[in-house]
């Protein structure tokens, strides 16, 4: 197998991609190298910036150097890392066509010794009529099929691209069909314009449409993605390879990349970075340079920031903090934040693909965190495993005590003691704590990850309160228990929970006993609880 997984967090993974030119660790950013002119020599990129893999364009190489005898791409670029070659598809997108054929460019990439290579697909582009989109999908699939006999047994890793643009049904169809072909790597075409227009929510939909329909064990390349602000999001969704010329193009346009946004050098009074360039020069010095030097310095800074962010993402995967990193980066732009908010609709898919335990507490800052796999997983387990066990029991819902684990607190221990001493059927009473954002925590599961290992920024925002109340009401609606007692203290959450539970019970025509009190754990409240439990005692089957 050419791709081995080392670590995972969310759908993101650290992998080792074995190519004939060497192994590379993913997720990896591949700087786009113009084979004709380079601001930074590829050799320096490897030695000083840690670029173990890059991407260049075989079509441009063929046009400029195609008649040189024994042409090899590693020698041409003077680079001994892993080289990916693209096929000229981008030129089709920009210029409308290329002077080569799909077969010819496959043979050319084989002859120059590309480690990873792309068939000549047809990029869908942006804002094109649906018939045109369908044609790009079908023609790319036809070319992928036709490429198979030419690349069979080849030690180059061939990329099978997915097209379809923002037409998600077509992205799905494209992914399903190319995923059945024996390509070791897949890629998603046409996201560049989506990203340039800051349509990150559309990008998320496109990535999800492709990922849900491709074999998960194959590396996934996001074509033309290279802004460090979106790496954590794209990696969290399972993208492994990135390529872009943004680091160089932005430098030419006087733009300075950061992990949160793009800034104009002319607007900078300070350089918020500690790369060698930003340590050596001040903002004014950089502005005062002659153009060629300034572009070179900005190119270096932009590449440093880009490479460093990928390291940050990998460290977050190891730690299990990729979600937190993604949320933090999403604060750089509202469009990125809405894309992260949009992950809520993919929470089941995210949960199924995410590792279950990363050995670390979960931080919930606001409602963005409600789509976290830990939350989804808890709710699913409650529904599948816990609720069915309740029908013989009397269920008590009580606001969680202030400390965790809830079942080890003094408050709970004294309640437990009273239940044992004062009831004949205390084993039939199920105490469930409730709190945001996990909703119901059965007492005996209080120490299960992550129910005692999370922190939430108090007070929870309104969306989190509504979400939590909704899930508790669903719990009440789904249990077959004959007796449900809800203790409602003075907190905002308690009010939401009470209102929703009463509403659900009225709709379903079932009983719920509510004890309203300012302090859920006071002596008086517990006295009342005990007297209700005694009253409902013998009658319960
Ligand atoms: Zn810098």
Describe this structure in words.
The chain folds into two domains: 3-34 and 121-353, Queuine tRNA-ribosyltransferase-like (TIM Barrel, Alpha-Beta Barrel), CATH 3.20.20.105; 362-535, Uracil-DNA glycosylase-like (Rossmann fold, 3-Layer(aba) Sandwich). The chain is an alpha/beta fold. The termini are far apart. The mean pLDDT is 94. It is elongated and about 95 Å long. Helix 6 (130-151) runs parallel beside helix 7 (168-179), helix 7 (168-179) runs parallel beside helix 9 (200-211) and helix 9 runs parallel beside helix 16 (334-341). The chain is built from 22 helices and 20 strands. 45% of the residues lie in helices and 18% in strands. The strands form five sheets. The chain has an eight-stranded parallel beta barrel, surrounded by six helices. Strands 17-16-15-19-20 form a five-stranded mixed sheet, with helices on both faces. The structure holds zinc ion (ZN). Residues 273, 275, 277-278, 301, 304 line the site of zinc ion. Zinc ion binds next to helix 12 and helix 14.
């Amino acid at each position: 197998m050419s791709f081995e997984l080392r670590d995972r967090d969310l759908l993101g993974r650290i992998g080792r991609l074995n190519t004939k030119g060497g192994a590379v660790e993913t997720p990896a950013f591949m700087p786009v190298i113009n084979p004709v002119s380079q601001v930074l020599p590829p050799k320096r990129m490897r030695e000083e910036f840690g670029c173990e893999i890059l991407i260049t364009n075989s079509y441009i190489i063929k046009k400029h150097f195609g008649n040189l005898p024994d042409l090899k791409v590693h020698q041409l670029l003077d680079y001994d890392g892993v080289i990916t070659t693209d096929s000229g598809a981008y030129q089709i997108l920009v210029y409308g066509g290329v002077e080569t054929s799909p077969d010819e460019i496959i043979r050319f990439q084989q002859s120059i010794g590309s480690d990873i290579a792309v068939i000549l697909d047809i990029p869908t582009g942006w804002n094109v009529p649906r018939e045109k989109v369908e044609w790009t999908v079908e023609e790319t699939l036809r070319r992928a099929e036709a490429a198979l006999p030419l690349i069979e047994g080849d030690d180059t890793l061939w990329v099978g691209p997915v097209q379809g643009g923002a037409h998600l049904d077509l992205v799905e169809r494209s992914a399903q069909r190319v995923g059945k072909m024996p390509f070791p790597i897949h890629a998603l075409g046409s996201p560049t314009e989506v990203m340039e227009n800051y349509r990150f929510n559309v990008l998320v939909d496109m990535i999800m449409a492709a990922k849900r329909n491709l074999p998960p064990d194959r590396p996934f390349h996001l074509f033309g993605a290279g802004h460090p602000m979106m790496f954590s999001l794209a990696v969290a969704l399972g993208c492994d390879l990135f390529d872009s010329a943004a680091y160089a193009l932005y430098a030419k346009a006087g733009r300075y990349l950061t992990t949160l946004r793009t800034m104009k050098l002319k607007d900078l009074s300070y350089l918020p970075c500690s790369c060698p360039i930003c340590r050596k020069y001040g903002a004014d010095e950089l502005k005062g340079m002659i153009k060629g030097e300034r572009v070179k310095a900005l190119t270096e800074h932009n590449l440093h920031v880009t490479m460093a962010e990928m390291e940050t993402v990998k460290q977050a995967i190891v730690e299990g903090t990729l979600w937190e990193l993604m949320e933090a980066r999403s604060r750089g732009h509202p469009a990125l934040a809405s894309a992260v908010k949009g992950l809520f609709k993919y929470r089941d898919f995210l949960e199924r693909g995410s590792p279950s335990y990363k050995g670390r507490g979960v931080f919930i800052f606001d409602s963005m965190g409600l789509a976290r796999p830990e939350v989804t997983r808890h709710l699913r387990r409650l529904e599948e495993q816990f609720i069915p066990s309740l029908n013989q029991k009397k269920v008590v819902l009580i606001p969680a005590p202030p400390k965790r684990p809830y079942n080890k607190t003094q408050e709970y221990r004294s309640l437990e003691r009273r239940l044992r001493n004062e009831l004949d059927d205390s084993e039939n009473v199920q105490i469930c704590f409730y709190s945001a954002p996990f909703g119901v925590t059965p007492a005996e599961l209080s120490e299960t990850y992550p129910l005692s290992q999370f922190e939430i920024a108090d007070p929870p925002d309104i969306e989190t309160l509504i979400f939590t109340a909704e899930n508790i009401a669903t719990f009440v609606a789904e249990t077959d228990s004959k007796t449900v007692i809800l203790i409602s203290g003075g907190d905002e959450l308690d009010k939401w929970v009470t209102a929703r539970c009463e509403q659900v019970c009225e709709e379903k025509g079932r009983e719920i006993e509510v004890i309203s009190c300012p302090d859920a754990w006071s002596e008086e409240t517990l006295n009342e609880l005990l007297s209700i439990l005694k009253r409902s005692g013998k009658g319960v089957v």
